[in-house]
What we know:
The structure holds two protein chains of two kinds.
Chain A: H1 2-27, E1 30-31, E2 39-46, H2 56-71, E3 79-86, H3 91-104, E4 109-111, H4 116-129, E5 133-136, E6 152-154, H5 159-173, E7 179-184, H6 187-200, E8 207-213, H7 221-229, E9 234-238, H8 241-253, E10 259-262, H9 269-276, E11 285-288, H10 302-313, H11 323-342, E12 345-346, H12 348-355, E13 384-391, E14 394-403
Parallel strand pairs in A: 1-12, 2-3, 2-4, 4-5, 5-6, 7-8, 7-9, 9-10, 10-11
Antiparallel strand pairs in A: 11-13, 13-14
Helix pairs in contact in A: 2-11, 3-4, 5-6, 7-8, 8-9, 11-12
Chain B: H1 2-8, H2 26-42, H3 45-71, H4 78-94, H5 100-122, H6 127-146, H7 151-154, E1 160-161, H8 175-199, H9 201-211, H10 213-218, H11 223-249, E2 251-252, H12 259-272, H13 279-297, H14 302-316, H15 321-337
Antiparallel strand pairs in B: 1-2
Amino acid sequence: MTAVRLSRTALASALALFVMTCSFARAQKAYDTGASDTEIKIGNTMPYSGPASAYGSIGKTEAAYFKMINGQGGIRGRKITFISYDDAYSPAKTVEQARKLVESDDVLLIFSSVGTATNSAIQKYMNEKKVPQLFVASGASKWNDPKDFPWTMGWQPNYQDEAHIYAKYILREKPNAKVAVLYQNDDFGKDFLKGLKDAFGDKASMIVAEEGYETSESTIDNHIVKLKAAGADTFISVTTPKFAAQAIKKVAEIAWTPLQFLVSISASLGGVVQPAGFENAQGIVSAVYVKDAADPQWSQDPGMQKFLAFLQKDFPEGNKLDGADAFGYAAAQTMVHVLEMCGDDLTRANVMKQAASIKEFAPDTLLPGITVNTSATDFAPIKQFRLMRFKGDKWELFGGIMSGDQGH
Amino acid sequence: MSAVEDVVTESPAVEAVPKRAMTLGYGTSLVVLAALIIIPLLVKNFIIFQMTMLLIYGLAVLALNILTGGSGQFSLGQSAFYAVGAYTSAILMEHAGMNYALTLPIAGIICFAFGFLFGQPALRLSGVYLALATFALATAMPQLLKLGYFEYWTGGVQGLVVTKPDAPFGLPMGQDMWLYYFTLVVTIAIYIASVNLLRSRSGRAFMAIRDNEIAASAMGVDVALYKTLAFGVSAGITGVAGGLGAIAVQFVAPDGYTITLAISLFLGMVVGGVGWLPGSIVGSAFIIFVPNIAEGISKGLSGAVFGVLLFLVIFLVPHGARQVAIIAQQLVAKLKKN
Lengths: 408, 338
């Protein structure tokens, strides 16, 4: 008898407690898998090994940034647990690792996974599971599709936006240009080329020659010669760093003097321009959205000083010349900003809602004036660039902030 | 790897494996089968997914094992056949709306034809030269898949997203579990067929060619036919594995089928034991799980740790899982005697 009475009391009190926590939760705290009073679990996949292992430093920077935030007390008292797995840039492995993160490690969301093919492989899965796939580290334009994939969001300006900016510039400054394009035959090159053609619109015939190359080719010299032979006076180099340097060199070698454009991913001073030779690179135009830590003009900039202090204190193995570090820092800062906006409502739906309502957020390592903005119909957080021209031994910014939106 | 050295010194490419030693005893087979059937009922979905991949890569390693362990020919081009199989399934499912189960035999047949045709010129090559020729195939494949002519079907560089099938007849199981059991049935069917193939007349012809080509032709074996046939069968099975892989991963892209995959499969075969069919699944487990273990030990040096682990395996048990199995068998026999 006592046992029954006891259990009845227990039941009653449990019920009371349940009702209490429920009303509490509605008023204050709400959690999905991966979040609690003390912890927020964030998953990530990175090519730490394999052909794209250079991007691995993005993940290392992000891990160090979250560690620093935890050291400062975390986000409203919650510590970030950042679980980052190697996918070797192989889509099959990404699927395996992403499923492990979601189903076994119980993460709240997946953040800043690198690669287009790799993220494409998990996009459908993440949206079926309704787990946020936030701030994908790839410049493909397909991450901005809130209607079909409401759980996926990009971060960096996409290749098509950048292409629009160059096209706009050409249409304005050199309306009779004969444009030659050298592009890498993969998702990056194709996406960029499509952006150029879209932006030229009915003037697409301005593109007089286009040449694709494979990353397995040892040299792209013959492509450059062909482009010159087509009679072009403007050259857009949609290349990755190694080939970008080759192209700059070859253009100078065959005494071709077009107006040159170089995509932002290859605009590295130390990685591309210096090896190609400063004298060959004079006058090249490129676009940029991240501050270059090697550039002395930012030495007094408060954001840059914070970044350098972070490198010194929290991430000594980082390299300030590696653009991936400034990238990872800004992405992680955006993530922390979103989690702060979530307050105590750490449900997946609210994370997505907050991620889609960022207004004028300026991470430390982005150029002054360039901000992160999203809305329920706009899942492309960064859309702005500034143009820069190579002069002497450094890039010089010119013109105002340009946006890649088609509506000029 | 001693096997490659052997080729250069003109002795048989692969150590002769008696055909009885190529399989497991009935008792062991049943235990393994029971484990493969029961485990998925007890674990999480993502582990079921890993086990599905284990079977799929196991099939691909098995295919290579028939080629190398059975007929003594090398191939570093298996990723190409795997890719053709994967794309065949993906294209038929997404563009033609075909049922996933029907796409697999088609993928197998197309890859068989592809492998058989590739086997023709490969006939003139042997040992390391053949390995190089197939290597060329593996490096060419991702680029071929990107070609503009095929882009409408292959999705070009963006790849194709594949819809995962639901369990049929309203069976009360999730997509992952259904796909696992489906894969298991296909794998067992192909495994039994492969064992029977190697025990048949054709299998004996393969092995005769492996052990001594001149003697085989003197005995009346049509060397050219059987060598190309071995290539075709191997490619066909790899194609089926590729098709299953596309369905399980739900995505195909050229970047997924690079030379790294071919080398992984080759590695799986060596670790599992060349010519020992049950070793295929051990080899497949090695290529799936050991990189994860290596990453757990050190994130920055995962590649190096993987290398060390691989080196240890090759150094301690050069004949792979087969050697471990033989040692275990001897121990059991000894215990029985006492």
